[in-house]
From TrEMBL:
Coiled coil: none
UniProt keyword terms in alphabetical order: Membrane, Transmembrane, Transmembrane helix
Transmembrane segments: 7-26, 54-74, 105-126, 138-162
Listed name of the protein: DUF1648 domain-containing protein
One of the protein's GO biological processes: response to toxic substance
Pfam families (alphabetical): DUF1648 (PF07853)
Species of provenance: Stygiobacter electus
Domain DUF1648: 13-55
């Protein structure tokens, strides 16, 4: 179902890309860059490029800390704070480790999706600023829709997975 090793590997690759892309584009950017765009994809907010870089890395750190922290701290939470279908079944002693491994994998996938969203949006912002048009791609809203669909898919997959009381660990 949720392969933690694959999820973590994907996350590390996406994290590395999200850390390197701003470095690649930094020298090409003007000192003052468009950082906010209206519904017509036209720039309506500006900041200096070093502040934008600080914001980029701050958001990455925030999301990595939240998702990774939750994944590794959740097993220490009392069961009353964990909301999954069939909680008593999945959090019993026989299935608890398996359950938290699956949740950690899901959180790695969700973190990867968030970082991918940042990568694509930042790429569009960099291109708009480097080209001098200060206008985003016309179909930039497609990116948000794709992100929401992917997040919805993972959420539905999680709900279906934990609604199934079949023994997923091979134990009876």
């Amino acid at each position: 179902m949720f392969n933690e090793k694959l999820a973590k590997s994907l996350f590390l690759i996406v994290l590395l890309i999200s850390l390197l892309i701003p470095i690649y584009f930094y020298e090409q950017l003007p000192e003052r860059i468009a950082s906010h765009f209206n519904f017509r994809n036209e720039a309506d907010g500006w900041m200096n490029k070093s502040s934008y870089l600080f914001l980029h890395y701050g958001l990455i750190f925030f999301f990595v800390a939240i998702f990774s922290g939750l994944g590794y701290l959740m097993p220490r939470f009392p069961a009353s704070l964990i909301n999954i279908p069939n909680k008593n079944y999945w959090l019993n002693d026989k299935r608890k480790n398996f359950t938290f491994t699956a949740i950690r994998a899901l959180l790695f996938y969700l973190n990867s999706l968030c970082l991918l969203l940042f990568i694509v949006i930042d790429y569009l912002v960099y291109k708009a600023n480097i080209s001098g048009t200060n206008k985003l791609w016309s179909f930039s809203w497609f990116i948000i829709v794709a992100f929401l669909i992917a997040t919805g898919y993972l959420t539905i997959k999680l709900i279906i997975f934990f609604n199934n009381k079949e023994n997923q660990t091979g134990e009876e």
